[in-house]
Amino acid sequence: MASPVPHHRHQASLESVIDPKAPPPLDPAQRAHAARVLYRIIEHFDALDNDDSGNRSRSRTYSRPRLVRYTYEYVLSDESRDLFLRAFFKAMALALDGHGLSGDRELDFEVLKPLFVDYADYLMDNFFLPLKASTRRTPQPSPAFHSAVLRAQGSEAPAFVGTPERLSSLRGTCLVRDRHRCVITRKFCAAEYTERFKKYGDEAHDDHGVLLSEVDQFATLEDQSREAALAILNMFDAGVAHLIQGVDIDRPRNALTLTHEMHQQFGAFEVYFSAVQGEYNTYRIESFLPPRLSATFGMPVVRTLFVTDARTIDPPSPRLLAVHRAIAHILHLSGAGDYIDAILRDMEDSIVRADGSSELGRMVSLGLGEWPTRAVY
Hints:
This protein has two domains: 28-127; 138-334, no CATH class. It is built from twelve helices and seven strands. The chain has helices at 28-52, 64-73, 78-91, 109-136, 144-152, 164-177, 190-200, 260-267, 291-296, 318-334, 336-349, 360-368; strands at 188-189, 218-219, 221-223, 257-259, 271-275, 282-287, 301-304. The strands form three sheets. A three-stranded antiparallel sheet has the order 5-6-7. A two-stranded parallel ribbon has the order 1-2. The chain starts with 27 loop residues before the first helix and ends in a 9-residue tail after the last helix. Pfam families: HNH_2. InterPro entries: HNH_nuc (IPR003615). Residues 1-26 are annotated as: Disordered.
């Protein structure tokens, strides 16, 4: 459903820009063949994975076949699915049009096995792992998010570094748009309340003109300008990377106002937003947290996000929230989220496990990438 009143933009939107280098879409026969072969390969290795599952600790591993499967299934457009299929077939050294294959029966799974493992590890090491690592210790927006996107896309372009002045301006803009309240819990900004109380005492009002009374809940609010945008590959939503290029990364559409607790859970992909069909700027906010913990945060809950009366500040981008939701589901359904969390806990505690279950290679890779001490700008 379109916005009832268009938002005023200070520059031309990049959302509809078409990449001239993008390959043509697959025709229906190619797409059907490619999807059939993809699932045949996934199901073969998933069955082998299940046979071996009794020998592995649940939290110390993840399912490569399911990581590949759900990454494909949670991409958000046909164009993006075509991009994924092209990349997968290239990695598997298979012809996309089926030349050389007289049927799925002739797939050589012994040859495909190392290629399939390498492809899943590529997704893990160049996208999901640095993504979760860069969000785990980021108290405010950091260019680490954008560099994770660039690395995952194989780009050598330098990461955009936001200035403190730009980030401060973004935070203030989003607080105004979000009425100084967390978009999930609706708790009012404690710092803003303190300033209003100093000026007006017990007559202090919220942004709707309602008295801020003892029944109101207050919390420290943080501007979350990267969590929905930082780890985007075109295979999730073709062209969406344009929304976070250059100075656009610090636009209000990339930001949410959240409490510290919600900041952490959203950044960990435990909390996600599902758009309510037919309702403008309205989302069902859910989580993968234990039910009792989720309930303490008031989830699930349906929220219509605030907009300014003049509509000069963009609401959070539905495309970026959809990508965040897709990544959250992939991490949860494949077990990759728990697996990455275990690696990060080992790094934080400087643990090398005697049973050999520590992922030393990935720990060293993150360490060389300076994740634990990465500067926040």
